[in-house]
Amino acid sequence: MAISFTDRVLEITLSLLLMFSTVIGGIAHLVVEPGYVEDPLRSAVATPFDCAELTLFDVPLVTPEMGQVECGTMHVPEDWSKPDGRQISITYVVLKSTNPNPKPDPILYLEGGPGGSAITSLDAYANEIFDEMRQDRDIVLFDQRGTQFSSHLTCSYFTVNELFNDSFFVSASFVDLATLDLTPELD
């Protein structure tokens, strides 16, 4: 009994689909490692707040001249590999685009540092630095961890008291450079 051409094409197509799905399933299994969090941002929670609450030395940082501004705090895992662990807060400000139909991808800005806050210079960012870019996009400013408005860093090894403790500086200054071999090794 001969197999028709149509049946043979169908048989080959089904075989190829079965083989392809097996290979893709195997690759997907190799790519997803144990403990992998598929969407770590699902454990982040944004809490908006009134921008009038954002002050520095009792001076409001958000002014009417800045146009539409949104403020909030992101609550995120301190350690992204432990999404149910300790949470920290990261303050953000969104300088909304002056265009009613902005491009969908905003500009994200993180201040350099160490210790710089993107939010304390909000007036300059809103009215000068990002003014032209705001015509097409929202601008998102994050106050990084350990800076002005976000969760503070705590380092138990090097505290403020240790910083100003004379014994720390005295012990650090008594390194005898004469005992160090600073000559390069030549082969």
Topology (SSEs and partners):
Elements: H1 5-31, E1 45-49, E2 55-56, E3 59-60, E4 69-77, E5 87-95, E6 107-110, H2 122-129, E7 139-143, H3 160-163, H4 166-173
Parallel strand pairs: 6-7
Antiparallel strand pairs: 1-4, 2-3, 4-5, 5-7
- The secondary structure category is alpha+beta
Number of strands: 7
Q: Provide the helix percentage.
A: 25-40%
Poorly predicted sequence stretches spanning 5 or more consecutive residues: 13-32
Protein architecture, described:
It is a single chain. It contains four helices and seven strands. It is an alpha+beta fold. The protein has a domain at 40-143. The strands form two sheets. The chain has a five-stranded mixed β-sheet with strand order 1-4-5-7-6, with no helix packed on it. It has a two-stranded antiparallel sheet with strand order 2-3. The model is unreliable at 13-32 (pLDDT under 50).
Describe the structure concisely for a colleague:
With 187 residues, this protein is of the alpha+beta class.
Features of this protein?
187 residues, alpha+beta, 5-stranded mixed sheet, two-stranded antiparallel sheet, 4 helices, 7 strands, 25% helix, 19% strand, extended
